[in-house]
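Model the whole thing, not chain by chain.
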Amino acid sequence: MKNDTIKLLLIFISALFGSFPALANVSGGDWKPQIVEKMFVLPPQHLNKVLNNDFKTSVLALNLRDTDNKIKSKIDKINELNSFLPNASKDETLEIKHQIILNKRDYIKDMNNLIIMKKQKLETKKAFFEKIKNNIKYNNKNKTNQSAFLNNKSKALERAQRLDFKIIEKTSLNINEKSKYFKQYETNKNAIEKLKIAINNHPMNEKSVLSNNSDNKLDTIANYIYNIETEIAVLEMKEQMMSYMAKIVVLDAMNLAENVSGIKQNLDGTFTSGENYNDPENVIDMFTKL
Amino acid sequence: MYKSIAKITLLISFVASSYANASPIGPLERERAKILNLILDKTISIAERKKKLEKSKMKLLDLERMTINNKQINKNPDTHTIRAFEDFDLTFLVHNSFERNKPLSITWFEKMGLTTDNIMSTRVSRR
């Protein structure tokens, strides 16, 4: 019985050591934001909402939720096993401790997966915002280079718009000469004007004015990236915590193995055997007592 | 054999280059040139010119509006487009004539410096 337990524990310890390097390669699914480029013009707050909604439908989000549930169940199980310990017999204590170590190992494994997935989510989000930031910077640079042309063009547009009403008046008699485009232009122009007025009067318009400004948008996005970076840094610290927790579990397992085998490791590193009944020296009392 | 290959290559490169050089304001420039040709055409009667000009004017107006409202040309405009927008009065002749309340031909002549006063002040001389 004892030999079986020792073998099991030895297998378990080696498995524990072997499993951690492999965890680094675990991938929790994929998330590629399915956001079209037209969405990039949205104010950053809305963009963030759209991005979060997009994440919710991804495989990564599904795996994240599953792992989260697994972790919760592992914690419940460890607590339950701990509550059994005070009333357990010696053999039962050994078995419960073994079970606790196994559950702790699974908890660490799942928690490590969870951290990797959370990091993956944050890295994807960061890459997305970096892309938008670069787009805004590129557009701003282009705008500066073409400012003279764009200035002329906007002046031309203003002049043409001022003349629209005059042109309609002057060409009112040339009904036969008017093209399909001319008629459509008039209709669409009126519709656009109505929409512009509606946008200006919209209560949400004032709120989005600040975020629509490219400089403000750039600041907001840079702030998002900063927040994501801090979250990643926190996760990296948690990763370090997990490695320490894993070490404690390994030490617990080694301790349990020692208790089972009866070999104790001294502080100076030397080993002394505990109760070893295979040595006749240890059973003298049994024979001498009447 | 080699000659025909060379001819085909030349033809393809010519076609490709003509597509690459197509300016977004090309149709506007062509229509404007057509109108200026009509204004300067001495072979047609005044009535005929007026009728033809009225028709072409509306077409040119459409093209001018299309060009002014074209947002695609904001990205990497070519030199022709940049030059065209530098001189609104000459490029967008119909708009300019509506602005000045003058006929299209007079608008163009005046812009080119060919006013009655200018012409009257000239004198014939021999060098």
